[in-house]
UniProtKB/TrEMBL annotation:
SMART domains the UniProt entry points to: ZnF_C2H2
InterPro entries, alphabetized: DUF2795, Znf_C2H2_sf, Znf_C2H2_type
The protein's name: DUF2795 domain-containing protein
Domain C2H2-type, first and last residues per copy: 5-28
Alphabetized UniProt keyword annotations: Metal-binding, Zinc, Zinc-finger
Record organism: Billgrantia sulfidoxydans
Keyword Iron among UniProt keywords: no
Pfam family, one: DUF2795
Keyword Zinc recorded: yes
Region annotated Disordered, chain positions: 91-112
Length: 112
């Protein structure tokens, strides 16, 4: 039987589609968009900027980055770090507290 499926990346051949798909998932997984990718896409943007202008600014970027920026909350962003924080909230589905104390003594530092 002749191989019906060929990996476009490494040239491996497979007779069954399921084996080809498993190969693609395990050998060549799709890399998720990172905060660094988002930061790179935001270079050259004059902050502060509203959500609509932010979406317009990343129009020429990869589809995944455009989709992520479009999903960010509709608000005014002070800088790239503000966008990164919103991206983190989007990924974890949780909103970060405004008064996050750091370190192990963080809770004690919030006490009056």
């Amino acid at each position: 039987m002749m191989a019906q499926f060929t990996c476009e990346i490494c040239g491996a051949t497979f007779e069954q589609k399921s084996r080809y798909e498993r190969h693609m998932l395990t050998s060549h997984p799709t890399r998720a968009v990172s905060a660094a990718d988002l930061e790179k896409a935001l270079r050259g943007i004059d902050f502060p900027v509203g959500h609509a202008d932010l979406v317009d600014a990343v129009r020429g970027e990869e589809r995944e980055i455009r989709d992520i920026v479009a999903q960010l909350p509709s608000r005014r962003y002070r800088d790239a770090a503000d966008v990164a924080q919103a991206f983190g909230e989007l990924r974890t589905h949780a909103q970060a507290a405004d008064d996050q104390p750091g370190g192990p003594g963080g809770e004690r530092s919030k006490r009056p």
